[in-house]
Amino acid sequence: MNSYDVAVIGSGPGGYVAAIRCAQLGMKTAIIEKYSTLGGTCLNVGCIPSKALLDSSHHYEDAIKHFDDHGIEISGDVKVNLEKMIARKTAVVDQTTGGIDFLMKKNKIDVYEGLGSFKDATHVNIAKNDGTSEEIEAKNIIIATGSKPSNLPFITLDKERVITSTEALKLKEVPKHMIVIGGGVIGLELGQVYRRLGAEVTVVEYMDRIIPGMDAGLSKELTKVFKKQKYKINTSHKVKSVERVGDEVIVKADNKKGEEVEFKGDYCLVSVGRRPYTDGLNAEAAGVKLDDRGRVEVNGHLQTNVSNIYAIGDVVKGAMLAHKASEEGSMVAEIIAGQKPHIDYNLIPGVVYTWPEVAAVGKTEQELKDAGIAYKSGQFPMRALGRSRASMDLDGFIKILADEKTDEILGVHMIGARAADLIAEAVVAMEYRASAEDIARMSHAHPTFAEAIKEAALAATEDRALHV
């Protein structure tokens, strides 16, 4: 039997980073993955493939809508070759997962392919795909088994017409009308892919706004932009049935008045969140406790009730974000090595990769109001930037929330071009507990989208934005 200092169950952004960091710190490390490729949901059927399709569809939309404005004339029709677009996405995934294979070899991490399950607190059984099994021993074990798409109990996912995000990444045709149940990150991103390619898209959301977990101002702005892009957005709608009849899907819901409404399309994307995935883990054999939502219970050090077993990423409480999982992977490795790392969960940024992009870090206005914290707000519109006019990316704004007395930045919320990259400046500033005036007095290159952060900081500092 092979013995290790650390065994990691799951090879997503949390698991593989944990394994690498353990190896860097001198521990003999193994990683167990049930699928034939490493990288988990993010690299295989999540973050990476969805961004590949978002980029491809963005190029197509630019070609048919914006190239002429830039003086680029195309003779003949611009056509979508969906098969080729999906093939490019697959190539990106293959290259990225192959990179993880390389990193495992580079760091001398043993990779086991198969379903890992606990025999007890120090032994893991690996049920291999060829029907054989193997057992390994580890002093410490990290659970990094991630999450799977959630569903509503009355919906039958046939994975042909009633689909999850996994199937939406490999459709063989552009839908005529895609109904998206759920106005969160995943549904909006994949909805935008197919809207750009010509599909009619109807979003049906239970809450009173899309991206309900983010600042209300971002929800309002993104709704306005999406309506310009001819989305049909239905908030405060409770879906009560989804039925497939031949190649048609019929969704029935009650609106906020309690009236039944019906939506008909040829595809229905069910995007109602994700659930922690512990199927087959046999956690009870190791004595590991799960909470009432199926998550692994952990303390502030991501340690379970069994002292040598840890859990990270989507399988524990907190935001289901790849970068959050990676931070936790590094943290656990360093804790096992005797170090004292720390994560400030308030400063884990969230991003929606639509266009315009949406990004945020820290507290929302509602959270500050609920906590009774006096704050001031500075906001700057992206259309006031020279860089935005040059690139024709005029939608959106950046908002900075700062403590009314100390001027410390408490939250930054943005929607606009390259917001996914711009949010890093806000994270750095808040990690160092910067004030709005600190950012306002920093030089930002001109012309850039980042100037909007400086202007929003100026707006929060005695309302003295320069360019609006």
Structural summary, described in words:
This protein is globular. The strands form five sheets. Strands 1, 2, 3, 4, 5, 6 and 17 form a seven-stranded mixed sheet that branches. A five-stranded parallel sheet has the order 8-15-9-10-11. It has a five-stranded antiparallel sheet with strand order 18-19-22-21-20, sandwiched between helices. The mean pLDDT is 97. The protein contains 14 helices and 22 strands. It is α/β, with parallel strands linked by helices. The N and C termini lie far apart (68 Å). It folds into three domains: 2-149 and 275-343, FAD/NAD(P)-binding domain (3-Layer(bba) Sandwich), CATH 3.50.50.60; 162-272, 3-Layer(bba) Sandwich (FAD/NAD(P)-binding domain), CATH 3.50.50; 347-460, 2-Layer Sandwich (Enolase-like, domain 1), CATH 3.30.390.
SSE topology sketch:
Layout: E1 2-9, H1 13-24, E2 29-33, H2 40-45, H3 47-65, H4 82-106, E3 110-113, E4 115-120, E5 123-127, E6 133-143, E7 147-149, E8 162-163, H5 165-168, E9 177-181, H6 185-196, E10 200-204, H7 216-228, E11 232-234, E12 238-245, E13 248-254, E14 260-265, E15 267-270, E16 274-276, H8 283-286, E17 309-311, H9 322-336, E18 350-352, E19 357-362, H10 365-370, E20 375-381, H11 386-391, E21 397-403, E22 409-416, H12 419-431, H13 436-440, H14 451-460
Parallel strand pairs: 1-2, 1-6, 2-3, 6-17, 8-15, 9-10, 9-15, 10-11
Antiparallel strand pairs: 4-5, 5-6, 7-16, 12-13, 13-14, 18-19, 19-22, 20-21, 21-22
Helix pairs in contact: 1-9, 3-4, 3-6
